[in-house]
Amino acid sequence: MQIDTLILGAGAAGMMCAAHAGGRVVAIDHAKAPGEKIRISGGGRCNFTNLHCTPEAFLSQNPHFCKSALSRYTQWDFIELVEAHGIAWHEKTLGQLFCDVSAKDIIAMLRGLMQAAGAELWLETSLVEVTRDGDLFRVTLERGGRRNSLVTRNLVLASGGKSIPKMGATGLAYDLARQFGLRVTETSAALVPFTFSDQRFAPLAGVSLPVRARAGSGSFDEAMLFTHRGLSGPAMLQISSYWQEGGDITVDLDPEARLYEALRAKRAEAGRVNLTTELARHLPQRLVDALPEHLGLRLSGNLADQSDAALQALCDALRGWQLRPQGTEGYRTAEVTLGGIDTDDLSSKTMEARPCPGLYAIGEAVDVTGWLGGYNFQWAWSSAMAAARAI
Ligand code: FDA
């Protein structure tokens, strides 16, 4: 059997590409259903894009690489597509767009588009082997215990990254990229909670508060959540993409820098109020109780007992809490994989491999990783469209 395009992986990028590539297209996936990560994303409502999607929200060895695809298929294009299919959506926070009803609506839309385009979807199908034969690829697949061969002009690597192996993530795209002469940058788990060796935050598990979190060049004002294993919440997931193993993270517990003036004002008005009582009006009580242990602070006396210098020192400590995580929860819970197929070996306009014409790489398999908040799906849609238009 000869086809025009074989797409390996029927996730977000693979389905989007299959729906728009034209010609005879087959998308295969070893899973029982397509788009499983779409289904579970955004708490079942899929944070499918972000209103503020710009190249600055993406990490890559080449930060310019994502610009072309993102500008030629934008968040507005995907919103138009979603609306044309009658999928109602809402903005939750920070430009993050979610389905009103279910992430399954996005999967149904993509399946419908594939069907309308005549693209085939072969589930529970795995790749046995692929070889190059002139301008073509010869592929052996295993489907329902049977092997079949096909020949294709274009081969699209859309099998994602390594995050959540339980959901079927494999290193297939990286292996094939290497087989055809492309480089793969170092990969690591990203958008992932931090762990601490001594479970020191277990007594605070469940406490959440807005912070400014920093690691490397990343700085995010979002919520932080204490867990039994360490630190999570959007602020921590975001900076995990910027954190280097063995390095520190910095947490600012007073991101709006209001505490010092607030404590001084309260001291002037009611100096007999206990310092910890007043702090608990600004920070969660359980955290205030744990501050002496974690930040080495002595929180005794009334507000009237505190000099300006003492209040300033307290606020400085709260604003610059340095922590050294033991590690992260790894690929087991990571939302994405940082790194991947080296963008130097791909055309930013078409996603075609320079060393191997006819080979394309899209989505998370490529060394382009977005922030939390719908950016990774937008990269899947945009990179898929770049390849589909070129095919
Ligand atoms: P994706 O992983 O979607 O698809 C790859 C496909 O290839 C899968 O169907 C897999 O089964 C298949 N495959 C893998 N290996 C194979 C093999 N050897 N043989 C055959 N098939 C194979 N992003 C976002 O923007 N907003 C959000 O709300 C969320 N939420 C979220 C929640 C959770 C829990 C996770 C884990 C991730 C997110 N993400 C997210 C990230 C987002 O899911 C991710 O960036 C995209 O799904 C990437 O799309 P791809 O198509 O590249 O890979």
TrEMBL record:
Its cofactor is FAD. InterPro entries: BaiN-like, BaiN-like_dom_sf, FAD/NAD-bd_sf, RsdA/BaiN/AoA(So)-like_dom, RsdA/BaiN/AoA(So)_Rossmann. The keyword Flavoprotein applies. It comes from the Bacteria. Residues 189-336 form the RsdA/BaiN/AoA(So)-like insert domain. Pfam families: HI0933_like, HI0933_like_1st. Keywords: FAD, Flavoprotein. Residues 4-389 form the RsdA/BaiN/AoA(So)-like Rossmann fold-like domain. The keyword Flavoprotein applies. PANTHER family: OS12G0638800 PROTEIN. This is Aminoacetone oxidase family FAD-binding enzyme.
